[in-house]
Amino acid sequence: MTGKVLLTGGSGQVGTALQKLEWVGGVSLLAPTRKDLDLGDRASISRFLSDHQISGIINAGAYTAVDAAESDRDLAWHINAVAPRVLGEFAARRNIPLIHISTDYVFSGDKKSPYQEDDPVGPVSIYGMSKEAGESAVRAHCAKHVILRTAWVLSTTGRNFLKTMLQLAETRDVLNVVADQHGSPTSASDIACVVKVLLERYLVDQLAPCGTYHCVNSGYTTWADLAEKIFEISKNMGGAFAQVNRITTADYPTAARRPSNSRLLTDKLERDFGQTLPHWHDAISPIVRDVLKRVS
């Protein structure tokens, strides 16, 4: 097994985690900067692809500023919808695998039970609409694809809920946190491990399953309960903590609507690839520890 695998979004949470992994002999990740490959520019993508011999693609790049997307629709659409189509068309021409990272935001969040992969989508934000369009483009133009929907991604990299909570707790005793949105906090490192398993299989197995899969840590919670768990872990490690004041989504208005239900079923990923992610309790502990180490 040899070849270069293109990784977009290399500086993001999942992209950073992927570059920390050890890959099988002969496989290397090619993670260009935005200067070399701009997902918001179709021509930039095409130039980069034509200049490199690529054996597979991991599209972890995305416009993820959910609220900003409401007023920056064109750029969000180019990165989240147009770029996946260009990558998918290229992958189809070269007959190489494409793993595309997507999101729970493709759903409305109105379902009362956890979402399965084949449930009807119904995004309620520009971000969600652009990501759903990206999924559709990948399906339409690249047969050898996997779409991995994930949610509530956490790591020591970039901006995320866990890091924000710990930062705010340094200066505040009480924090208002939404308690009526439900989902699965998910470690970027765990997502990266699944991506690696899938890609390495696709590079050697032409009959590997393709399609859409949900990839989140097991167990469900709310943002408020997650915050309390973060502070419990941090306090036990000698770090910052705060009291959580539970509020509703209506109490915390944002430009973009969030799904109230981001619970995703992962049975299909386990059935087809034998991949089951740890419980979110276990997933966040090492992230809290590493964040505290960085600020100490």
Structure write-up:
The chain has 296 residues and is of the alpha/beta class. It contains nine helices and twelve strands. The chain has helices at 13-19, 42-50, 73-94, 126-141, 161-169, 188-202, 223-236, 267-273, 280-295, and strands at residues 3-8, 27-30, 56-59, 98-103, 145-150, 153-154, 174-178, 182-183, 186-187, 211-214, 221-222, 243-247. The termini are far apart. The mean pLDDT is 96.
CATH class categorisation of one domain: Alpha Beta
What's the alpha carbon Rg, rounded to whole Å?
19 Å
Instruction: Indicate the low-confidence ranges by residue numbers.
Output: none
- The coarse silhouette is globular
Short description:
With 296 residues, the chain is an alpha/beta fold. The protein contains nine helices and twelve strands. Helix 2 runs parallel beside helix 3 (73-94).
Keywords:
296 residues; two-stranded parallel ribbon; Rossmann fold; alpha/beta; globular
Topology:
Layout: E1 3-8, H1 13-19, E2 27-30, H2 42-50, E3 56-59, H3 73-94, E4 98-103, H4 126-141, E5 145-150, E6 153-154, H5 161-169, E7 174-178, E8 182-183, E9 186-187, H6 188-202, E10 211-214, E11 221-222, H7 223-236, E12 243-247, H8 267-273, H9 280-295
Helix pairs in contact: 1-6, 2-3, 3-4, 5-7, 7-9
